[in-house]
Amino acid sequence: MVASSLKLQDLIQEIREAKTQAQEREVIQKECAHIRASFRDGDPLHSHRQLAKLLYVHMLGYPAHFGQMECLKLIASPRFTDKRVGYLGAMLLLDERQDAHLLITNSIKNDLSQGIEAVQGLALCTLSAMGSAEMCRDLAPEVEKLLLQPSPYVRKKAVLTAVHMIRKVPELSDIFLPPCAQLLHERHHGILLGTVTLITELCERSPAALQHFRKALPSLQVVPQLVHTLRTLVMTGCSTEHSVSGVSDPFLQVQILRLLRILGRNHEESSETMNDLLAQVATNTDTSRNAGNAVLFETVLTIMDIRSAAGLRVLAVNILGRFLLNSDRNIRYVALTSLLKLVQSDHSAVQRHRPTVVECLWEPDASLSRRALELSLALVNSSNVRAMTQELQGFLESCPPDLRPDCASGILLAAERFAPTKRWHIDTILRVLTTAGTYVRDDAVANLIQLIGGAQELHAYSVRRLYSALAEDISQQPLVQVAAWCIGEYGDLLLEGTCEETEPLQVEKEEVLALLERVLQSQMSLPATRGYALTALMKLSTRLHGDNNRICQVMSIYGSCQDVELQQRAVEYNALFRKYDHLRAAVLEKMPLVERGGPQVDEEAKESKEVAQLSEAAPVPTETQASKLLDLLDLLDGPSENAQHPPPLDPTPGDTLIHLLDLPCAPLPPAPIPNLKVFEREGLQLNLSFVRPPGTPTLLLITVTATNTSGGDVTHFICQAAVPKSFQLQLQAPSGDTVPAQGGLPMTQLLRILNPNKAPLRLKLRLTYDHFGQSVQEIFEVNNLPVETWQ
Known about the structure:
The protein is an alpha+beta fold. Helices cover about 60% and strands about 10% of the residues. It has 35 helices and ten strands. It has a five-stranded antiparallel sheet with strand order 3-4-5-8-7, with helices on one face. A three-stranded antiparallel sheet has the order 6-9-10, with no helix packed on it. It has a two-stranded antiparallel sheet with strand order 1-2. Strand 4 and strand 5 form a beta hairpin. Helix 26 (about 460-470) packs across helix 27. The radius of gyration is 36 Å and the shape is elongated.
């Protein structure tokens, strides 16, 4: 049976010649039967050939588990041809999930102790490919001895095996610390690259190893040696065998820069040592090739992560600015992403590249355009708000539909924060509503109404602008709602024609009523929009002089409307005409300004100053911190510290009509919502505190507070949140990305959640950060939020 077995080449040819899958299975089943018989008979001369064929069958996806024990026999064989196939089979057929892999530990240990380089290389490759934690613990001393072997071939494979061992068992770091400093003096690029990778793994997984490499004796310090090696690569170059597109070994340069970034992070001495070198790399690297761009990008990341000089950080931002001009879209995307991370810490340096960033808005690539939009919105401030808003509005008119909600919301938020004048603010919102009204957030209507109501000198200007916009287009529902409200409130100013800031506009009462009736009859109007129009008509009965029969007729028609809300309004408005006509003028008076609970802070500098004072305050007991946090939120959207809540209105016979017309009535102050601890790990704790502004019951403000009681700083802390589709979520910029150790100043971030349906709130959080040299990512869902947050 063995004699009739095919050779490997013949088996491959026969499988390839099979015309159907059934023929292929038949060939493989027949050959696997021969292979099993050969294993059972124990043919020592041909077993490695049989295993080689079985490995090919395994690569095709067919079961080959019956060859596992044969791998062990071949590894134990003294012949190199057997060992080579046996070790290859072990790497393909064995893994940690099978107990059989532990049986080759002794064979690997014996082969590592031999002086044959080829056998040692096979054993090290197998150990680095499928070595489990138990095998790594047992064989770590043998690997440590091979790190200093004379043969570069063995040393290189031993270093790579040590990297695998550290990843599997970080506790083994003490064994591999001593040889690292000596291995950094190697001239063999393969060994040097492996050594830098090994030190990187040690520093990321062991804080003790990181301190060892930072504070070692001068002869053992790794930062000066790394600086020397990288300077040699950049300034003098190397042989052509290590050159990639004219760049000297970019793989080694990138790995050294990553290690320097870890060693220089939050360490002044190491950062000073590498500052000059980073400047040399940034100025002497060829940017005409992709390999040079990779080295430059890694240099930028290192500069931004260590305690580098201010001039060096500006140089790094300028490099990213040059990346924006690159023809490669991937490089432009990387530059936009990096600048977005730097805009908080180096705002002025990033501002210099604002024109280039704005040009990227019109990129045909959707991912580039979205990233450019996020960066453009982050660059808006009080000094450039006019120019940036004009650019963003131009982009809004032609941007893809999937970008319009983000662009419209971003413009509205920027206008709210940095508006130079109220008139400019109103004009900006009107243009957004006219261009992309269906894409704006639900609170845009209330915000614009609040803004117009508070600008008494602009009432005539606003009502004329809105009337003209409504006459041209009634499809944008938010715009129609604001226009209907404004016409109902200030319709008398519309007919007076005394506004000098707009072109003369002659409007008759019948034209205004006809326009509102057109809104009521339009198939595009939502029920809420019809409610605005119906109320506007009712208010015009007291604003405009003349006969109100047309208005009464409309109310009578909608008294039998199928929509319950509209029907109720119309019936009660009819009651005002028939039974309470003497109260109609008083009930329909102009609405007073609906205050949000306290004075708005108009100047951004003043707001930033107050926020900074709060963030720099010394730690205090929990109650005091919570009260200060509420004060900070009050600056944005709530009652100030000294503001008094108005007393509740006494019930009167007209209460129903007051609520019907949405006149402002002061509710009782809501009870405080208890805080909630949602995460705790290794000293890092995450707490949520909640505030619901009295003026906006559908809005919930959540402050995420991160504190750290461990002995090491939590760096690169990023908190991301997600809510169901029925909610709207907006994440404000965090107070920082580092949570200091030993209970230092906490890091805070504000989440604004709009819940128009008052549905139960579910929140999913994703945390990414670096702690004790390890990168951590946690994803969890918060389902136990207090009912006060949504009811």
